[in-house]
Amino acid sequence: MDWSMGGYGFYVWGSYFCTAVVIGLEVFSLVKRKRACSHQVKEDKQEKVRKAESSYVAQAR
Amino acid sequence: MNLYKYASPTAFYPLAGKMIPWFAIPAALLFIVGLYVGFFVAPIDAQQGDAYRIMFIHVPAAWMGMLLYVLMAIYAGIGWAFNARLSSMMASSIATTGALFTFISLVTGALWGKPTWGTYWVWDARMTSTLILLFLYIGFISLQASIDDTRRADRAGAVLALVGVINVPIIYFSVQWWNTLHQGATIRILNKPTIVPKMLAAMLIMLAACWLYSVAVVLIRLRCTIVEREQNAARFAEAT
C-alpha cells in the first residue's frame, strides 16, 4: 500500500481521521452517559433497600 | 415466548444489555476486515487513483444516514400512533447516530470532492438534500430537548420525523431527477453493480460494520434513555 495515497493522502487520511474522531466522540460520550446511568441505577437499588428496611423496622416495632 | 412483553421499557432493558456485545464485537471485527480489504486488497481506481478509497467510509455513512432516518421516523410514528414509549425512546436514541453518520458523509464527501471535482462544496441537489437531512436530525434532537414533558416531546418529534422522511427519496433520486455534479448510483438493487467485486466487497463489509455499530450504540443509548426517563417518571410520580 502506498501511504501517500498517490498524492491524495490529505483527503483520504483526513476522511478516515474525521470519521475516527466523530465515532470516538460518540463512544466516549456514551460511555460517560452509561456510567452515570449505572451509578443512578445502583443508587436507586440502595434507596429501595433502605426504604424496605426502614418499613420492615417500622412494622416490627 | 411472548415477545410483546419486550414492548415494555423495563422488560427490554436487560435484553438490550445482553444484545449489545453481539453487535459491538462483530462491528469492531468487520471494521478491521473492511479497512484491510479497502486499503490492501482493493485495486487502485483507473480514473481517481487512491482518492476513491474515501468511498469505503463515505458511501456506508451516507446510506446509514438515510436508513437511520427512515427507521427513526418509523419508530417515532409507531410511538405516536400507539403511544408506545419504547418506540419513541428508540427514535430518540437513533437520532444522534443518524446525525453523526450524515455529518461523516458530508465531511468525507467534501474531502472526496476536492481532488475529483476541484471543489469541497457545491449547492448540488444530492449534497444540498443531504445537508437538509442533517438539519432535520438536528431539528429533531433540538425539538425533543426543548420540551420538558417527554410525551409531548415525542409527539412533536414524531411529526417532524414523519414530515422530514420525504427528504430521503429526494436524496436517493436526486442524481436521476436533476443534473448534478455528484455521480449517479454505482450500486443498484435491480442492476448489476458497475464496480470491481473487491471494491464492492470492501464497501459492503464497511456497510455491515456501520450497521452493527449503529445497533450497538443505539441500544446503549436506549438503555440510558430508559433509565433516565423511568427515573424522571418515578420522581415526578413521587413529587405529585
Strands of chain B, count: 0
- Poorly predicted runs of chain B: none
* Count of runs of 4 or more consecutive helical residues of chain B: 7
Mean pLDDT of chain A: 89
* Biggest interface between chains: A-B, 25 and 31 residues
How would you describe the oligomerization state of the chains in this entry? heterodimer
One letter per element, helices H and strands E, the order of chain A comes to H
On the 0-100 scale, what is the average pLDDT of chain B? 91
The residue fraction in helices of chain B comes out at: over 70%
What report would you give on this structure?
The complex is a heterodimer of chains A (61) and B (240). With 61 residues, chain A is mostly helical. Chain A is built from 1 helix and no strands. Chain A has one helix at residues 9-60. Chain B has 240 residues and is an all-alpha fold. In chain B, 77% of the residues lie in helices and 0% in strands. Chain B has 7 helices and no strands. Chain B has helices spanning 9-41, 55-82, 85-117, 125-146, 150-164, 167-177, 197-239. In chain B, helix 1 packs antiparallel against helix 7 and helix 3 (85-117) packs across helix 5. The radius of gyration of chain B is 20 Å and the shape is globular. The model of chain B has no long low-confidence stretch (mean pLDDT 91). The chains are: A mainly alpha (61), B mainly alpha (240). At the A-B interface, helix 1 of A face helix 2, helix 3 and helix 7 of B.
